[in-house]
Design a protein that fits this description.
Layout lengths: L17 H9 L8 E5 L2 E5 L5 H7 L7 E3 L5 H4 L14 E3 L1 H10 L7 E3 L6 E3 L2 E7 L8 E7 L2 E5 L9 H8 L5 E5 L14 H10 L5 E4 L22
Parallel strand pairs: 2-3, 3-4, 4-5, 9-10, 10-11
Antiparallel strand pairs: 1-2, 6-7, 7-8, 8-9
C-alpha cells in the first residue's frame, strides 16, 4: 500500500481535528491511495497519485513497468507526470472511457495506451487481471480483480456499496483471499459516491473476502480502526 488516504489526504491541510493533530504529532500520514504490485521481478502501479514521487521514494525507487488506472479523478492519475525524466514512461492500462479521459490531460507525455474493456481478463507479468465496473457517479470507474495461481486479490477503487450485479457476481464467483475496499468515513457518515466503514465491512463479507483492509480513508477515520490499511503496509502471497 503506497497510500491509503482519500483525495485530500491525512493530515488535511489547515485542519485541527483530533485525527489530523495525532498524525502530525506522530509524523505519520495517509498519502493518496495507490497500490504497488511486485511479480516476477516486475512492478505494476495501481493508480498514479499526486503523491507518487514521495511514494516511490518511500518504496526504494522501484522501476515501474506498468500503470493501471481505475478512473479519471485527479487523485488517481495526475501523478503520472512524475515519471518524466525519471524513467521510460510506463505503459498504461484502463477501461476505454478512463483511458480517453486521462490521456486528454496527459497529452504532453508519450506512452503506450492499452484500453481494456471491463470484464475482459488480460495477462500481465504472470498475473490475470480483470477490470470490473463499480458505482462512483458521475465518473466511469472500475475495480480490479487480480489472480495468480490459486490467489485472488481485489481492489474496489472508489465506489458506493451497490455495484453492478455483473460485478458482484464476478466477485462472488471467486474465492477472494484479500480485498482492498473503499472505506472513506466511520459508520454513520453518508459520503456520496463512497462507502463508509460499516458499508465497506458489509461489502467485504457479502463478496466472501477472507481478509480485507479499508483504503481511501479520510481524516474522519481515526488511527487504530480495525481493518484499516496503513501506508507502506506490505502483503505477500
Amino acid at each position: 500500500l503506497l497510500g491509503t488516504g482519500d483525495a485530500i489526504g491525512t493530515p488535511k491541510v489547515g485542519c485541527d481535528c483530533e485525527t489530523c493533530q495525532a498524525m502530525v504529532a506522530a509524523g505519520r500520514s495517509r498519502l493518496r491511495t495507490s497500490l504497488l504490485i511486485e511479480t516476477e521481478g516486475k512492478h505494476i502501479l495501481v493508480e498514479s497519485s499526486p503523491d507518487l514521487r514521495q511514494q516511490l521514494l518511500r518504496a526504494c525507487s522501484p522501476h515501474i513497468d506498468a500503470v493501471i488506472w481505475s478512473h479519471g479523478h485527479y487523485d488517481h492519475f495526475i501523478g503520472f507526470g512524475e515519471f518524466y525524466r525519471v524513467q521510460k514512461i510506463p505503459p498504461t492500462y484502463a477501461a476505454p472511457p478512463v483511458m480517453d479521459y486521462c490521456s486528454r490531460y496527459l497529452h504532453f507525455l508519450s506512452y503506450d495506451k492499452n484500453p481494456i474493456p471491463a470484464y475482459e481478463p488480460f495477462d500481465l507479468f504472470g498475473l490475470t487481471l480483470t477490470l470490473f465496473e463499480v458505482n462512483h457517479p458521475p465518473v466511469y470507474t472500475c475495480g480490479l480483480l487480480i489472480e495468480h495461481d490459486d490467489i485472488t486479490v481485489v481492489y474496489t477503487s472508489d465506489t458506493k456499496e451497490d455495484i453492478p450485479e455483473a460485478s458482484r457476481d464476478l466477485l462472488r464467483s471467486h474465492d477472494i483471499d484479500f480485498l482492498f475496499v473503499d472505506g472513506i468515513a466511520p459508520e454513520g457518515y453518508n459520503i456520496d459516491k463512497h462507502m463508509n466503514y460499516a458499508e465497506a465491512i458489509r461489502f467485504a463479507r457479502d463478496v466472501g473476502a477472507r481478509d480485507y483492509r479499508c483504503v481511501h480513508m479520510s481524516h474522519l477515520v481515526p488511527p487504530g480502526m480495525p481493518h484499516a490499511g496503513y501506508d507502506m503496509e506490505t502483503f505477500c502471497w
